[in-house]
Every structure is written in C-alpha cells, then in structure tokens.
Design goal:
GO molecular function, one term: aminopeptidase activity
Mean pLDDT: 96
Strand content: 15-25%
Number of helices: 13
Number of strands: 18
InterPro entries: Aminopep_P_N (IPR007865), Creatin/AminoP/Spt16_N (IPR029149), Creatinase/aminopeptidase-like (IPR036005), Pept_M24 (IPR000994), X-Pro_dipept-like (IPR052433)
Strand order of the largest sheet: 6-5-4-1-7-8
Enzyme class: hydrolase
Structural class: alpha+beta
Helix content: 25-40%
Family: Belongs to the peptidase M24B family.
Largest sheet: 6 strands, mixed
Radius of gyration: 24 Å
EC number: 3.4.11.9
Low-confidence stretches: none
Distance between the termini: 37 Å
Shape: globular
C-alpha cells in the first residue's frame, strides 16, 4: 500500500464497538471484495470491502473476519482468515500478509488461513443462536453483480437453516458515520493532498487546455503524495459541460471566457475527500459569473452553519432550499410568482439547483449514515450547493468537507483550499 501503516488500535476499537451491539450468543462474518474481471486475464484494480477494512485494516483480497464475543474459548472470539501466502505468490503478485504481519495490522491474535474457515465456522455455530449477515443497505445502493458477501450469505443460509438471522448493516451505518480521531486525521490528509492538486491547477489552467490535461495534473500530484488517486471518477467540466451533473468524459477544450467546474478529490488510505471548485479558464470571472459565484458561496456558508448536532437531514435540505430561493430571486433567475406557484414536491429553486446539499463522507465518498437519525458530533459531511444555468453556458458548484462539532459551527477540513473568488484570481494570475 502507498499509505503509511495505520495504528491498529483504531481497528481494535472499531471491533469492540461493533461487538458491543451484537446479541448474546451470536456470530458475525465479513468478507472481502472479489477481484473483478475485465476480459481475458485482465482484472480491475482491487478495492477492499469497506466494512472488513473498517474492522481489521486488512487491505487484501480473500480475507474473512469472524466475530463471536460470547464464544467459550478466547481464540474463537476474533479470527481473521487470510489467503495462505507462499514464495510463488510473493514472486508473481507481491508480498501478502503473513500471520504475524496481519496481527500487527489488525490487532487480532488468531490469524488463520481461509481453507480452515468452514470447519472453524461450524464449531462456532454450535455455540451460537444468531448469525449477523452483512448486506448492502446504503440508500444509494444499486448493485447488479453478485458479490463474495452475497455468495457467502446464500451458502450460509442453506448450511445453517435453524439459526436466526440479524443484520450487521444498521450497526455499521451508525458506527461508521461517527468518526474516530484517527479517521479524521486520515481524512484531513486526503483533503491536504487534494489541496496540493488544486493549487497545482491554478498555475496550469489557461485557454486552450484540454480537460483531460487537467485530470493528468491532478493524478500526478495525488499519487506523488501517497494517494492511490481519485476518490471517485473526476468531473472536469468546462463551459456548458458543467450543466451535466455527472459529466466524466473530460475530453473537451477549455475556452477563453468559460468556467471550469471541478469536482475532483484524492483518497488516502481508502478514506475519501470530496472537493468542488469552479474557476475561470482565463483567470478572471466575468461580472455575471462572479454574481452567481458569490451567491453559491453565500448558500454554502449559510448551509455549513446548519450542520450541528440534532439537525435532521431532510429538514436541513428544506432550510437550504429557502436560502437558495432567496439567492435565485436576487439573481433574477426566478421571480415571486415562480415561488408562489411552485410545486412543494419540486420547489422553484430546483430548476437551477436540482441535487442535494450534503452527504456523509468517509471510507466511501457517499458514506454510511442513517438519514432519518439526527446528526452527531464527529460526523463528516460535504456541503455542495450549485447553480446551473444552461441558457448562460455555465454552472457553478462549491464544496467543502466539514466535521460536526459538539457545539458551534463545524470544522472545515478544506479550510486551506482557496475558495474566495479574489484569491483564486490572484493565484491564477501570479
């Protein structure tokens, strides 16, 4: 891995929190992701399942975690199963975790090879009444591929039909949404790497540059700072491309007088950052561009103040909508009649700001978090309002990542990344 080793006490603490929520006489199993094929002998780069990563730090394929806190023997209460390594694997694929190294990484004392999993699970099941299965219940989930976890759940239900079933996901949704201090440090590092990439761009962008050249500058800066690369597929949208919310072609020329909407950010140690900035190709905003830019920034600043413990996600978005409505009225994009006659299910402001303002951030870019429950301290959210005007040929989105505090306004992990229009212009014209 490119990233520095993470203190194993984080994973010890995460497992302890999870096991405290388990029912008596229960067992939980977590599987790694598969390595997905492309064609012939090609595969996609491996990405570890975030749940087993959160609980063990084992960033490796063919790994399984078993937790059974009430097992009568201590060695059965936490077990990490790994693919057995050997000299041949080391030569062809690189070093894999040894048992000793896995204990260093995870803090788990009992490390076994995956070929011993089924017989070990059988013994554990004789002591347990309930199995926690790990299903994907994220509100944005849309999975069409059978995962390693799916295959395990199908096999287990056939093998042990007399046992009760419980779900790991609701526990993890709550635990993972509230970050430990070590996690916040990792996310701050991801944001710091993103800052370096963005500052690099401010001296690089000029009329005639291609969107993919900007992408290349970013990946260079990210990787040289120990990131695997982008936390998500980068959006580098010049001109009217910014009005396609998930524009990812990045193949157009950036023209004099246009804006570039950048939704680009680095990961670090599998933790995401998530940045949006909108900059002028020629280094100067026009009067109209600046009016809209400042309006978006005001909405972002007002929305940020609302992210405090006790806030409900749905009500928060209603309040942000009111702020955006006021700004759109000031810009002349909507009028009072539009507001008076609006459909409550799709308010007038949605014509120019059609997406949400915030989402959880962490090991996933759209991270775990139960949206029906109130916000808590140490949750991390994006704040990303935008105004999109196809008729005028540009769209503007601004986004920072903030940590909710026990009291007062949230802490901005991107506080050092330029966002004020004057500072961006100054840096682009040095």
């Amino acid at each position: 891995m490119k990233y520095h080793q993470i203190d194993r006490n984080l994973y010890i603490k995460n497992r302890k929190k999870f096991m405290a929520e388990m029912k008596p006489k229960s067992v939980a199993v977590f599987n790694s992701n598969d390595i997905y094929p492309i064609s012939a002998d090609s595969t996609m780069p491996f990405q570890q399942h975030r749940d087993i990563l959160y609980l063990t730090g084992a960033d490796q394929e063919e790994s399984i975690l078993l937790l059974c806190p009430d097992a009568p023997y201590e060695h059965l209460r936490e077990i990490l199963f790994l693919r057995e390594t050997n000299e041949h694997i080391a030569i062809w694929e690189g070093e894999k975790l040894t048992k000793e190294r896995a204990t260093e990484v995870s803090g788990i004392k009992n490390i076994m090879w995956v070929q011993d999993f089924e017989k070990t699970l059988f013994e554990v099941m004789t002591y347990c009444d309930t199995m926690y299965i790990n299903t994907n219940e994220h509100y944005r989930s849309s999975v069409q591929t059978q995962t390693r976890e799916d295959r395990f759940i199908k096999w287990w239900k056939e093998k042990y039909p007399a046992h009760q079933v419980a779900k790991s996901n609701p526990i993890l949704q709550r635990l993972r949404s509230v970050k430990e201090s070590q996690e916040l440090d990792l996310m701050q590092n991801a944001c710091n790497i993103t800052e370096k990439g963005f500052r690099r761009l401010l001296g690089f962008v000029k009329p005639g540059v291609m969107e993919y050249e900007i992408e290349a500058e970013l990946i260079h800066e990210f990787v040289r700072n120990r990131s695997k690369g982008f936390a998500y597929t980068p959006i580098i949208a010049s001109g009217n491309n910014a009005n396609v919310l998930h524009y990812i072609e990045n193949n157009q020329q950036c023209k004099d007088g246009d804006l570039i909407l950048l939704d680009v950010a680095a990961e670090y140690a599998n933790y995401s950052s998530d940045l949006s900035r909108t900059i002028p190709v020629n280094g100067r905003y026009t009067k109209r561009q600046r009016e809209v830019y400042d309006a978006v920034l005001r909405v972002k600043n007002e929305a940020t103040k609302m992210l405090v413990p006790g806030t409900l996600w749905k009500q928060y978005h209603i309040e942000v909508g009111k702020v955006m409505t006021s700004e759109l009225l000031g810009l002349g994009l909507i009028d009072k009649a539009d507001v008076q006659n609006e459909d409550p299910a799709w308010p007038a402001y949605k014509k120019y700001f059609m997406h949400g303002t915030s989402h959880h951030l962490g090991l996933d870019t759209h991270d775990y978090g139960l949206l029906v429950e109130a916000m808590k301290a140490n949750m991390v959210f994006t704040v990303e309002p935008g105004i999109y005007i196809p008729a005028e040929g540009f769209g503007i989105r601004l986004e920072d990542n903030v940590v909710i505090q026990e009291s007062g306004e949230p802490f901005n992990l991107m506080r050092n990344i330029p966002i004020e229009a004057e500072e961006i212009e100054t840096l682009m014209n040095q």
